User: Fold this.
Amino acid sequence: MLLLPAELFNRTFRRAPDGTVHVALLRRPPIVLVVALGVIAVFFGALVWMVLAQAGTTAATQGPVPYVIAVVFGLLGLFFLATFVNALTAIRSRGSWGNRECVALGPTGIFLRMQKADVDVPWNEVTAVRATHTNAGNAVRKARAHVPILRIETAHRHWDIATSVLDASPNLVYTVLHFYWTHPGARVELGTAAAQHRMDAHAAS
Assistant:
């Protein structure tokens, strides 16, 4: 984690209440993955065009079936297109010093700066910091994907951070968040070299 002045990532996001914070940056999506998403989106778009172009031209393509197929391919194409656009946005917002996506913490709380979350969570509102996974405890969805996440909870809502997008060690981020959540007296050192030495020592251990 990096000890940084809050203004380094406040040109697009709001500035954190604390002047100096400890920042865990989010990792940019791999270029290969982004290109693959774009190619798949174009592929499904081409399939839709081909199916619609052939609709009604032969006996086998009469009726609603080609249009149903086109709708299915179109929905799949839209999904991959949306994912492609989201990945492009993440490349920009996770790679620029002036537009940083990150998880940060300081004496007053935890600061989330992400595409779907731009929020300051005061320490006194945090009810839990968990290392868990998606669909945990949901018997109905137990067959669905279980993605490792860090979860920050308050009385009324929670925020999930996939460990795969953290550019810092997920274990370090969880340990630091949990430590300062459960040790209010130690929060005074946040934003100082003392806290950074603690984090660096843990990262090296």
Observations:
- Residues 29 and 91 are 6 Å apart (CA to CA).
